[in-house]
Amino acid sequence: MLRHSRWLLARALESRLRGSTVYSLRYLTQLADDWFQALKDWEKEETFYRAFNENRMTLRLLNADPGRSKNDYVRNVPGWMATRQDDGTFKKTGVSTEVFLSGGLTGLKDRLNPDNFKRRGPSAPDLPLQSRKNALGLHDLSGRLLDRRFRISRQGFNFDKTRHAVFMPIPAEEDHVVFYALSYVAKSDPELRANADFVEFVRFMRARLSRIKLAEGTDMGASFVVLRDPETDRVRIRYGYTGKVTKTETAAPAPNADDGAPKLDFLEQIRRGRTLRSTATTAVEDTSPTLTAEQVLARITGAWKYKAMLRTAMELGNNEIIIAYRQHASSDFPMITTWPDRDENPLYHVVKSASRLSLLYDDGKVETL
Description:
The chain is 33% helix and 22% strand. By secondary structure, the protein is of the alpha+beta class. Helix 1 (2-17) runs antiparallel to helix 2 (25-44), helix 1 runs parallel beside helix 7 and helix 10 crosses helix 11.
C-alpha cells in the first residue's frame, strides 16, 4: 500500500515540476493524503529491530543529570543574524545573537505535540502567523544515524548514567524524497502556493513526520542562524547550514526508477531549484571555512538518500544528522534509556517508551519486560 501510494504521488509531483496541470489540485491532494495515511499505518508497525536493520534508526544523547544540565537543558545558545539577498542567498550581518533552545526531555516531548507547530490557516484563522516553535525552543537537533553492521555500543552510545539515549526511527529514503518534493512543489508551484488549504495540509504533515533535514559524513561544526523577515517580522531559525565540511561525498545519488521514488530528472529539478536557497550558509565563525552552495546542497540531498552517508563516513559513528523530531504513529517511539539501581550490563539497556518498558540488546533486538 505504501509503495503504491508513494509511486502514484511521485508521478504527480514529477508532472507538476514539469509545469503540467494534468494532475489537478484536488487529485494531488488526494494522492498526498493517501500516501501520508499509508506512511502512518506503516509507522504503527515499526519495531526497533526493523528500523535498525534497515539503517533507519537515529540516536541522540541528552544530558540527564539536573546538576549538569540545569532546567532540563533549556538555555540560550549562540547564533548569528543573517539577511536574505535579492538573489535568494543569505548573508551574515556580523551581529551575534542568542537562540532559545529546549534540548532536553521536556523539549523532546513538546516536539512530539503537533499543536505546538500550528499557525494561522483556514482551519485556525485566529492563531498567530508564527507557531510556538521559536517560543518553546523546538528547533531541529543534531544526532547520528546508526549502522546495522556494528553494535550500538560502538556507535557513540557510551554507558553513562549522566545522559539519556534517545532512539527514533525515521521514514525510508524514498519517503524522504517524496515529502521534500511535496514541500518544494507547495512553495514553487503558483497554483499550490496560492491555495491556503493545500499549504495548511502540507504543514499538517510536516508537524507529524520525524525526518532527517541535513546529513553529513562527519561532524558539521554548525551553529544557529537567525533570519528575520522585515515585512512580517517573522523569525526563522536554522541549524546545520553553517560550519565546516571535511568530506562532501554525502551528495545523494538518484534512486532507481522502479523503487517507488522520483527519477533522476525529478531530483535534479529540485536540486536546481534549491541551489540559491542553499547558499544561505555563510560560516557562523570567522575562523570557520565558508560553505559553498554545492557543499550545502550535499547536506540537503544527503538527507534524501541518507544511507549513502554510512558508506562515506570518515569513521564509525562519526556522521551527523539534523533531525526534526515529530509525532510518531507508534507509541513505542521514541525509546529512551532509563537507569535502574544496579551496575550496568554492557550487553543491554533498559529503555522506555509511552507504551512499555523493554530491554534493548546491543545488536538491536528488543525484549519487552
